[in-house]
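cron nightly-structures :: item 1 of 1
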Amino acid sequence: MGANPRTSQPRSPVNSSPEHKAAQPPRIVEGSVDDLATALLETAPGARLFRISDANVDALHGAALDAALQRHGAEVHTLVIEPGEEHKSLETVAALWASLIQLEVRREDCIVALGGGVTGDLAAFVAATILRGIRFVQVPTTVLAMCDAAIGGKCGFNLKGKNLVGAFAAPERVLHWYPLLDTLPQREFAAGLAEVVKSALIEGEEALVALEEDARQLAARDPDASRRAILSAASTKCTIVEQDYRESGARKLLNLGHTFAHVIETATGYGDFNHGEAVAMGMVLAARASRQFIDTETGLETRLRSLLETLGLPTDAPTLPADTWTTLLRRDKKRLQDDVQLILVQQPGSLVLHPTAPNDLAVWLADGAPLTVTPDAATAR
């Protein structure tokens, strides 16, 4: 085996600013787990490595990666957390802090987040806060993490609401090694495709048509279609993050469907739906809200439902009472003054921020999100 892993692109120019690191495209590692280990060691040369994974990923992939890293001379420590969004909590963060301190972590060390979105968020937050910040590398194991969650430098945990405590912390690099997806359950694979759909809606009509054409292949987990979809979504996010690292402008568009999704996840206790499923339902609600509140493309909701259902995703949000919607919408971290900042779709590639009072929105949602405008009336606005 050669000294350098086979990758699809050269190393990026040296630039240590968080903005640059957060917007770096993923480094695609081809080959074996030893090639992945070499890529990791090139990213954090000379560091002791602290791998964080949930119990499921650890059982599937942890030992193989640790052994490969050790074959290349690395010192590796493993920290295993409980799987699931319900464990994306202060308790888990505190346990990781305590373990790292017991292991005498140093500032020159590096955390390796081997896992999905929950693991990546927690590991990044812990890395950003322990000793006031140490390096970390994202090695995502899910479609959702590869195309969205691991990219962009946002991290945090849940506290009476989704991601209400967090930080901006950019990884040294995001490494894509696609064999990790081979063990991903079908439900989790489909969940990641919700973020791919979101990305296509942001990108525009051409990207959405391409995704519609690939939808059946994606649902069947065709490797080429999957890689195209993941890289397209990742590229869109990197471009937006490069423009707006701190989410003061264009990056807000990446929240399409998420205002509704976070309420659905929190209200159902993070047990009924995974994040991607909630985002899928949230995007359908956003499409419905777009017809209700702004001049939007006729037929977008129907088109979106068809695509999401082909990909194996739910489209009908659970019924929640108005007071639940109101309470959780008021906790939305993106609100401005008293208004929720909805991301609505005029047409693919044209999205807008629409300030909406939480009470009014909650009543509309609890009533089944009825359309009270005719197509002609909406078009005339």
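cron nightly-structures :: done
Residues 259 and 342 are 7 Å apart (CA to CA).
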